[in-house]
Design goal:
With 177 residues, the chain is α+β, with helices and mostly antiparallel strands. The protein is 11% helix and 24% strand.
């Protein structure tokens, strides 16, 4: 993948890899980032992201408690997250697009996430709570295999990771939605 670069389509927010030899528009940014070595605090079954102040379900949703992650349709994903009791809290929810994509680590692949903080993450697609504006029968998805994002039909089954809390910092990529 040394020949590819990450690019974002500003008309819809989709992220894709592109060939480094192609020409693309550039948008400059400035500001600091939380060092990845200090970013996540593991609290047993949950992980606190010190960069966003969000608390995450550490494992991918396992509705059968059989040790195997369970993909589910979007409505079931919403209900699962809202009904979750974990780490002494019951205010869990399905993350919005900006929250979910904040977990992507673009320096990693399959899975494109910090595997120490989030072990056994499926290198696959996860639901967000954000409806895809272009096609409202879809919701935004984040693929933790590649770190890409796109819309997917709400009746299909994908993986779930719940979140709780409120954002403490800005999400610079929130301009996409």
């Amino acid at each position: 993948y040394k020949y590819y670069v990450w690019r974002v389509l500003f008309f819809n927010g989709d992220g894709y890899s592109g060939d480094k030899s192609d020409s693309y528009y550039v948008r400059a940014v400035r500001g600091g980032q939380v060092p990845s070595s200090n970013r996540y605090v593991v609290n047993g079954d949950t992980v606190t992201d010190t960069g966003t102040c969000l608390e995450w379900q550490r494992a991918t949703a396992d509705t059968n408690s059989d040790g195997i992650a369970d993909p589910m349709p979007w409505q079931d994903a919403l209900a699962y997250a809202e009904g979750l009791s974990l780490g002494g809290h019951t205010d869990w929810r399905l993350p919005d697009y900006n929250e979910l994509v904040s977990l992507v680590d673009y320096s990693r692949y399959s899975p494109a996430i910090d595997a120490t903080a989030f072990p056994a993450t499926e290198s696959s697609v996860y639901w967000s709570s954000t409806t895809y504006a272009y096609r409202t029968s879809d919701a935004w998805l984040v693929d933790f295999g590649e770190g890409t994002d796109y819309g997917g039909n709400k009746f299909y089954s994908y993986y779930v990771r719940a979140v709780r809390g409120k954002q403490c910092g800005g999400f610079p990529w929130s301009i996409f939605l």
